[in-house]
Amino acid sequence: MRELRDLPENAFSSALEELLRISSEQKTSIQAFGSDSVLTNIVTSGNSYDIQVNNVGFNNRVVEVSYTPNDSTFEGQGTVLNFYLYAEWHDLYNTGQVMIEREAPGPSPVQKWRVYLIGNDSSPPQWARLTFYFETIGSGTFTGTTL
């Protein structure tokens, strides 16, 4: 005896049910990793650059970047998952280097990074314009300060 879903006119709905079942099984197996349970935001200023650091050539420079979440009521809220930056160099060869170091978290919700700018010593003076991007849980604000 055949079931109703085996009839040709029900083929589409049967195929759709099967796809939904497979999707549900896959989602359930991955859910433990947080793939569908975490909503992330990209936080950026929207400006063409966030900070300009001058005279980077012989004087390698350091920029401290601080991110302050708008709301840290719950643990993990306002956490920065990834920090990215775009560096535009102005020198004869456009050959500056950037290194990023995340500072150890403290008791406050503010998260910090040190950005080391290593200029080209053969063609100073030069400047670097940095644009920051944060992938976060929640929203927040950031500042960049030359040390």
Q: Would you give an account of this structure?
A:
There is one protein chain. The protein has one helix and eight strands, in the order H-E-E-E-E-E-E-E-E. The protein is mainly beta. It has two domains: 4-33; 41-146. Strands 1, 2, 4 and 7 form a four-stranded antiparallel β-sheet that branches. The longest helix is centred in the first third of the chain and has 20 residues, at 11-30. The chain is elongated and about 80 Å long.
Topology:
Layout: H1 11-30, E1 41-43, E2 51-53, E3 61-69, E4 80-90, E5 97-102, E6 111-118, E7 127-136, E8 140-146
Antiparallel strand pairs: 1-7, 2-7, 3-6, 3-8, 4-7, 5-6
Total helices: the number is: 1
DSSP strand (E) fraction? 35-45%
Return the structural class.
mainly beta
Order of helices and strands: HEEEEEEEE
Q: What's the mean pLDDT score?
A: 79
Inertia-based shape: elongated
Q: Which residues form runs of ≥5 with pLDDT under 50?
A: none
| Rg of Cα set | 24 Å
Question: Which tags fit this structure?
Answer:
14% helix; mainly beta; 4-stranded antiparallel beta sheet; 1 helix
